[in-house]
Amino acid sequence: MSSLRVAASVVLLFFTLAPLEAAAQLRNLTFKIHNFTTKVDHFTYRNNDTFQMRYIVADKYWNRDKGTIFFYPGNEMRIEPFVYSTGVMWEWAKYFKALLVFAEHRYYGESLPYGENSFKASETADLEHMAYLSSEQAMADYAALLTWLKNNLAGAKNSQVVAFGGSYGAMLAALMRVKYPYIIDA
């Protein structure tokens, strides 16, 4: 076998095994799933209903005295796949002593404002509950969650919040920085 073929084989092996090693590390993540009570409608007084929004916290690397909060606003599916596929947050958490928070988007996963009836039409209106599925309502959920965490989690009050995301989640992260600059620092 020529040295060029050996070198090519080694490079190919490296690029095959490196992602497997990274994936193996992500499978061993430690985190806790919580529920946060939030409003179904943040913007009017007509609806006082609340629901349980799921969120995930990983505090393995967090330094309560000077750590950052890395926040991932959930996309259009349950939250766990984002926990396992957002490796950069986990890698950077070590260096920034960060608390990781992943919030599930309303109407996805188990964060259903009206449970099984979230997607059903009622006798009086067509899909009336779907009126609360919007990026504005989701961002208000996230703002309420982050405010609650900063006020109730020891050491979080003065922590800066950095929002991450991909695709729709990246749009939410960027819009949250614009709409809630007093909550999202970067």
UniProtKB/TrEMBL annotation:
Keywords from the UniProt entry: Glycoprotein, Hydrolase, Protease, Signal
Does the keyword field hold Protease? yes
The molecular function GO annotations come to: dipeptidyl-peptidase activity; serine-type exopeptidase activity
GO biological processes: proteolysis
**Segments passing through the bilayer:** none
- Pfam families, per the entry: Peptidase_S28
Asked whether the keyword Disulfide bond is assigned, the reply is: no
The record ties this protein, via InterPro entries, to: AB_hydrolase_fold (IPR029058), Peptidase_S28 (IPR008758)
Q: Which residues form the signal peptide?
A: 1-22
| Gene3D superfamilies named among the record's database cross-references | alpha/beta hydrolase
- Say which family it is in: Belongs to the peptidase S28 family.
State what protein this is by name.
Prolylcarboxypeptidase
Q: The organism's lineage?
A: Eukaryota, Metazoa, Ecdysozoa, Arthropoda, Chelicerata
